[in-house]
Amino acid sequence: MRQRTTFLHRNEDAIDPASLKVSGRTLSGPNIRAVREDRFTLGLDELPAELQELLRLSQELYIRWTSPMPYQAMGPWSSRLSPGLHVFYTPQADAKANVASDHEICLLLRRLGSVECSSPNKSFSRLPNDRFSHSTALEYYQPVYDLTNFVEYAVQYACAPSDAECKTCFDALKQASSLDFSYDTISHVVKVTALWGRQNQPLSVSAPASHRVEVGLLTPNEPPHLEQHEIGVTGLLTVLGEDSKPAPTMFTFPSRHKQASTGFSSTFLTPTGLHPTMQLHINSNKPPMEEDTYCALHALLTLPRTIFADKYQLEDTLFLASKNLTALRYISQPVDLEAPDYVMDIWGSSVLLELSTPVAESKEGFTAEIPLHLRYQSPQHGGESTFEVPYPAVFWACAAEEGTKFPSSPFDRINLGYDGLFGPRTLFWHLDPVAKSGSDQLVIGGKVPVLDLDKSRSINTVTSIVVVVGFAWVVYRLMMVYLRTGYGVAQPVKAAEKKQQ
Amino acid sequence: MANLLSTVFSSPSLVFTAAFLLRAILLYTDIDYLVFTDAARFTFSSPSSSSVSGFLPQGSPYDRETYRYTPLLAYLLWPTTPAAAASLPGPRVLWASWGKILFAGADLAAGWLLVAVLRRHRGLSGPRALQYVGAIWLLNPMVATISTRGSSEGLLGVLVAALLWAVLERRVVLAGFLLGLGVHFKIYPFIYAPAIVWWMDAERMGSRSKPINRSSNGLLGKLQRFVTPERVVLTLVSLSTFAALNLAMYALYGHDFLQHTFLHHVTRIDHRHNFSPYNVLLYLASAAKESGGFKIESVAFVPQLLLSVVLIPLVGAKKDLAATMLAQTFAFVTFNKVCTSQYFLWYMVFLPLYLPHSSLTRRPRLGLAALGLWVAAQAAWLQQGYELEFLGRSTFAPGLWWASLAFFLVNCWILGLIIGDLGSSSTIASASSSSSTPSSASNKRKN
């Protein structure tokens, strides 16, 4: 196992390098306002047996969890995903492995707090494999909003009962902003990355004797000739146990993801009814790059199966334009437009929409509205159920210059669900999600009217009685006609008699 | 005003012009129309590139989700596809509305057939026939709206009206063809088969080819008398039309065709709110994990089919075919597990034929009460539906549920009135026998 811990801070938050102490296998210093990333690189044999088993059956597996709490991103860690648990997965091609992994992956996801996964065949959606090779085959999402279950599982596996330090280490994950797990058969190693958004935090890292730990204390740096698709940093690197003092460093690397330095918020218009409208408020209509670069603003919605978008409704260009939308660029398949929530196995759907930005001389905010539809949910006591939708990821996708290449960088994050839908030379400029006032989480939702079980006790009986009564009445009327005139032509004589009565 | 109305109704060209103008507003579009036109576009585009559409049906209409109709409908809407619109003369916008024009045209054609039936077979004068058809069908805003918004029910209207017309005109082969086509199009017209077959007895059809053996009254004799050449021809033509269309569509679209056109109606859950009395019960039952006790919804087809396929045709067909077909359709829609306002068109097409001789017009207060209750129950349901759909209030129970049960009972009561009129429909029998139909002499005789 190897560990790389990076603190990235703004220039104004810098601390005096002299205040850093390296003693033995520990680096410590004063508290620092920074983003912290811990990356662990593990061999397969260092993992729990059930995970090893699953990875043997997998070609690629990316599990990405994002916290519902807003956080400040920085530098290479600007890429965003909707809060919750995302899984991107390609099983081994051979069919036998497929059957076995069906069982394994859902078993693993249950450790993370997901309970609804039954098997990739039923619960996962298929990603398009005709565009770019770097997409996984399957996608899954579950609204898991905290890592308590995972932390318990990890502590049980990794920490000796008496090892309090180990426990504290994992407990810190409960405050993490995101946690990534990556594996592919080519590199044959597992990378686990935890990220804490920019905040004041203790600067203290210890290396256990068993593994190598490298600590970086970096700040953004813009050397001359820095390209728009590159990020430059400068600062101090220390390998614990080897270096007696931090060594200065400065380097640049390409990054597909950058910060757009503007924000957005999301809400549902009320009343939501059965057809809620998601409103996105974008703080600025200005693209992040110069005018000669092609940029388009996109929103990637992750919709749990309770709620869905109708792709046919989103084809009408006039209708789209009236909502400040340009086009539906991608929707995962299949999306059943009719089925109720409670008969479905698939997790839900993801929707990529291109937004249209109003043309204006000055920078100004605007809103876009996305029409969505709720499924019927199972009847409840009280006649009300709820739905929750994580904030979408909103970003500008810009075409990088001809010939730009993105070789793997030390901080690269690929397979986010949407990067595979764009060309290889695309730069993503991410907008910061801002929670609506009155909420501290990046999750929005509302109420869904359902059949009230308290008022449904007599439905079966009363409906049956009413149908039988109605039927009996009609049969009685038929009987009367039959008894009077038989089944043949009504005879004039009898009709005349009736008139006399 | 009354004078003006009577002038309008005395002139067929005026009524049909008014009916045409009523349908000239093609502004609003129902979701159904988008489904049809999408399906047409998918049908006429090659599978490899979805954007290029051509002149041959290379694709499948079932690539459009929720397309649950025969591919024939998508073929009919070929002019709405982009490529077709580009190659056809005239403005594109007009061709995009081709389907609506077609459905509205079908409305007018159905109206024309209804007038013909009223005049030739139900003893009404031209102006009176026009009056009924005009007021109830041609100038009915509900009928016009459904067609011009792009629902295909107008096509069913003309098919069913033509079927009745062909039967009354003794055009057996044409009737068989229309019956087969109608069932292929929308399944439900199969309920008319027993009524038409029962109506087509030897006496009425003036069958001469087969000597009637009066002496044998046993089962065999009765069976021999029942199997007339006309009945055999009708059965064979309708079955072979139905089979040929289905085989052709199966050959082209395989399982998709079977699944979406027919099987879907067997397996669907029907949980979304609609007028059916079973609706809330079906929602409750579809979400229930385990089942226990008697479930009326699983035998819903029994009262429905017993009434519309067996009892009503048996008692009514020989008395008054048009009123019987109305009662059958009314029963079928009322007792169905799904019911939306488009289904009302299925029986409305028969109303102009039934009303002139009905107790509802003989006793206007009864007629108004029936109409009032029918509208009021629907209005109550729609109000509850609005609160649910747009305001998000849980009105499933008791609001929507009670409204749907009330609507059901109103419908049963009206159905009882229509059936009651079957017993006193001698006026129609005599009226039609006095008209110049080929077999008028045999009409008075009983089977």
Automatic annotation (TrEMBL), chain A:
It holds the Pfam family PIG-X. It is found in: Endoplasmic reticulum membrane. It is a single-pass membrane protein; Single-pass type III membrane protein. Pathway: Glycolipid biosynthesis; glycosylphosphatidylinositol-anchor biosynthesis. It comes from the Eukaryota. Its main location: endoplasmic reticulum. Keywords: Endoplasmic reticulum, Glycoprotein, GPI-anchor biosynthesis, Membrane, Transmembrane, Transmembrane helix. The chain crosses the membrane at residues 458-476. The keyword Endoplasmic reticulum applies. Required for proper folding and/or the stability of a subset of proteins in the endoplasmic reticulum. Component of glycosylphosphatidylinositol-mannosyltransferase 1 which transfers the first of the 4 mannoses in the GPI-anchor precursors during GPI-anchor biosynthesis. Probably acts by stabilizing the mannosyltransferase GPI14. Belongs to the PIGX family. This is Protein PBN1. It comes from Apiospora rasikravindrae.
TrEMBL record, chain B:
InterPro entries: PIG-M (IPR007704). Its EC number is 2.4.1.-. It is found in: Endoplasmic reticulum membrane. The keyword Ubl conjugation does not apply. It comes from the Eukaryota. Keywords: Endoplasmic reticulum, Glycosyltransferase, GPI-anchor biosynthesis, Membrane, Transferase, Transmembrane, Transmembrane helix. GO terms for molecular function: glycosyltransferase activity. It is a multi-pass membrane protein. Pathway: Glycolipid biosynthesis; glycosylphosphatidylinositol-anchor biosynthesis. The chain crosses the membrane at residues 98-117, 129-146, 152-168, 175-200, 232-253, 299-317, 329-354, 366-384, 399-419. Mannosyltransferase involved in glycosylphosphatidylinositol-anchor biosynthesis. Transfers the first alpha-1,4-mannose to GlcN-acyl-PI during GPI precursor assembly. Required for cell wall integrity. Belongs to the PIGM family. This is GPI mannosyltransferase 1.
